[in-house]
Design goal:
Helix content is 35%, strand content 15%. With 581 residues, it is an alpha/beta fold. The longest helix is centred in the middle third of the chain and has 19 residues.
Length: 581
């Protein structure tokens, strides 16, 4: 038994081990390969601009670990084609269906990318080109294997011309049209062949050889050799249907959110928010939902003041059902002496007058933390995107203060967990400034905090979120605020988002956390901007193109008529950016 997944990078130690096993297979199965080409594989994954292809690495792993085989596909999104660089099972795993499973997976992905087709090289089965009969038999078996997918050699060109005169077994260029009946046209083929020779083989192929081969594509459309081993009726089309498991978004929903329901003072942070979102996400087929795991309180104490945690717990668990405590006295003149009375002490720990404490506020927000930690933990076991769909939200909760509908800062607690394994960037895209997250990491350099929000001169929380708040001590220049005007549309928003993404790339984090606020949408009762579904898709796509293990934590968004639609658009964009770009 084995499973196939994509390996995006080697940020995690476990993925470094996987890469080492892939490199060992390369050395064993391709003995003529230069060590420099093997060593550069991690850089190919992480720096597509330098290598002029986006490298996509698939690994087949046993259920107990261990790489059984791999395939390396070079994707060219601008020209719209893919080049299969290597595909191989481990030496002791040949003949067990691993190569076929790998090839079918990459065909499925290439078809989803709307690729023109997959190109690759196969050694010839023609006695004029390959004199060794034993080698020819091996070549015939390989070509027969690919024929079942409709992948056939291109004929009538000089591609098989050896770079060095007299060399034996120059390869065919094989073309897999991915089930399409559309002919391969001359101009398209010439552009693709030039890209392959100049990028993949720039050290081996001199310019005059490249020109000779490219110009030899004289037929329009290009000739494809007829099938020799199988009937065309037997050709397989790319598989379609359910997304591969490793490309699904892990979804963790707070299953206790609805016990926290404030029915007074026009409270907009209500249970319908979660239902509105899940109703639109479930039909997409993009998500794998799991239950939240319980996590110890010590993880909260790494972010929040223990006294603050104890206070919230004690007050909430001792309040009768239906009773709410609203803060009304704020001890700004003497914070050294908190009031003894718990109800009065609410103002000692709260930043506003409209966030109540109730019997259910503590268990609901405690479960929200469990959801965020569960989703964050999935990134440590190779999930690429995870979504903690929670309420109450958390980004306004500071180290020792609650407010803005927020009690514990789930985003910050998840970031603290991930920071043990590498640098973390938190991008808050709620309409309101993430003052709590800023407060918690303001003096740290291992967690970059950025917030795009309405200017505090008119938007909650009013006292934080200015662009001169850059951090303190070791955290100086690791906090960045982007306060924006009262009126803003999607294109204007993306200009600022591009600046934030540039800052994240410079920071080079191992993980990205998105504090997702959907209150930037047109018509939201707590915001003034005018983003629509297409804007959320575009924003998500830009974030996905960072290609970082990404945790999304739900924050604000209060117009239940469009919450689900906008969330769906955002995650579709995020998925496209992560997996298709």
């Amino acid at each position: 038994m084995f499973r196939i997944r994509r390996l995006f990078d080697t940020r995690l130690p476990s993925d470094q081990l996987v890469m080492e096993q892939v490199q060992e297979i390369l050395r064993g199965q391709f003995p003529g390969l230069d060590d420099k080409d093997i060593a550069k594989l991690p850089q190919q994954l992480e720096n597509p601009l330098k290598h002029r292809f986006r490298a996509v690495l698939y690994v087949a792993e046993g259920v107990r670990g261990g790489v059984k085989g791999f395939a390396l596909l070079l994707h060219e999104p601008q020209l719209g084609f893919d080049y299969l660089d290597y595909i191989s099972a481990a030496a002791d795993m040949t003949g067990r269906g691993i190569g076929g499973a790998l090839y079918e997976r990459l065909r499925t992905d290439a078809a989803a990318w709307n690729s023109r087709g997959i190109f690759f090289e196969c050694l010839p089965d023609d006695p004029k080109l390959c004199k060794n009969s034993k080698h020819r038999a091996q070549n015939r078996a390989r070509l027969k294997f690919y024929e079942q997918y409709g992948a056939l050699p291109i004929s009538g060109t000089a591609y098989e011309t050896p770079v060095k005169a007299g060399d034996d077994s120059p390869p065919y260029l094989v073309f897999d049209p991915l089930g399409s009946k559309k002919p391969l046209m001359q101009e398209n083929a010439r552009t693709i062949v030039r890209a392959i020779l100049e990028r993949k083989y720039q050290q081996q192929c001199p310019p005059d050889y490249v020109e000779m081969v490219v110009n030899s594509f004289a037929d329009d459309p290009v000739q494809i050799r007829p099938a020799r081993y199988l009937s065309p009726e037997m050709f397989k089309s790319p598989q379609q249907g359910e997304l591969p498991e490793d490309e699904k978004i892990l979804l963790v929903v707070n299953d206790q959110h609805d016990i926290h329901h404030i029915r007074e003072r026009g409270y907009v942070e209500s249970p319908v928010r979660i239902r509105s979102i899940t109703r639109k996400l479930q039909p997409t087929g993009m998500f794998r939902e799991i239950k939240a795991k319980r996590h110890p309180e010590k993880l909260l104490k790494r972010v929040h003041d223990p006294g603050f945690i104890s206070y919230l717990k004690a007050v909430c668990l001792n309040l009768p059902a239906g009773k709410a405590v609203y803060p009304y006295v704020f001890p700004i003149r003497n914070q050294a002496r908190p009031p003894m009375d718990r109800a009065i002490r609410a103002g000692y720990y709260c930043i506003d007058t409209f966030t109540p404490l109730t019997a259910n506020a503590y268990p609901a927000t405690r479960r929200a933390v469990d959801c965020a930690l569960t989703a964050a933990g999935s990134l440590l076991v190779r999930r690429r995107i995870a979504y903690a769909l929670i309420r109450p939200p958390g980004h306004h909760a500071e180290r020792k203060a609650y407010g803005g509908f927020c009690y514990f800062n789930s985003t910050a607690i998840a970031a603290e967990l991930l920071s043990e394994h590498g640098r973390v960037a938190i991008l808050d895209i709620d309409y309101h400034h993430g003052n709590g997250t800023q407060d918690i990491f303001y003096r740290r350099a291992d967690v970059l905090t950025l917030s795009i929000h309405g200017h505090p001169r008119f938007a909650y929380p009013y006292f934080n979120g200015f662009d001169d708040e850059l951090g303190e001590g070791e955290g100086l220049n690791y906090n960045q605020n982007y306060p924006l005007p009262e009126e803003l549309d999607g294109p204007g928003y993306r200009k600022i988002l591009a600046l934030a993404l540039q800052r994240i790339r410079k920071f080079k984090p191992q993980f990205l956390i998105i504090a997702l606020g959907l209150d930037t949408a047109k018509g939201d009762p707590t915001g003034t901007w005018s983003l629509n579904g297409n804007d959320f898709f575009a924003n998500g796509k830009l974030l996905g193109e960072l290609h970082l293990p990404t945790l999304v934590v739900q924050e604000g968004g209060y117009d239940s008529r469009v919450l689900g639609i906008n969330a769906s658009h955002f995650f579709k964009g995020l998925w496209v950016g992560m997996f298709l770009e």
